[in-house]
Design a protein that fits this description.
It comes from Thalassolituus oleivorans MIL-1. The chain is an alpha/beta fold. The protein has a single domain, classed as 3-Layer(aba) Sandwich (Rossmann fold). 47% of the residues lie in helices and 17% in strands.
Length: 133
Amino acid sequence: MTTPAATVATILLAHGSSDANWLAPFDNLLAHIRSGLDSERVELAYMELADPSLHHQVATLAAAGYSRIDILPLFFAAGRHLRKDVPAMLEQQQNELKQQGYDLEISLHSPVGLEPEVANAISNIVIRRISTQ
């Protein structure tokens, strides 16, 4: 059985930083993504060092009635954070929410950096910059 789209939300997960200059491109990216969607709910969260936190965003979406949350990491690769830290955080929060009466499915997806389009785009930029030196 598939979950109706109206009950599915996506959280874009970035590492986080206390530096506002580091955070700004993520806000711009979120705005650009939202402009390309219809009514799909997409939020931004940070694993640490910045707000909104992943914990906060998951709780907010659960309280808003979403029954499935897809976590899409804006990471280049799956290091320790994505292999261990984030899954443990999500499992703990999912258990807490279940105890509060929320029936919530949380799916952690592979990082966007592993997508072939990302590797191609980075390769093209590097080749262009090297070629114009």
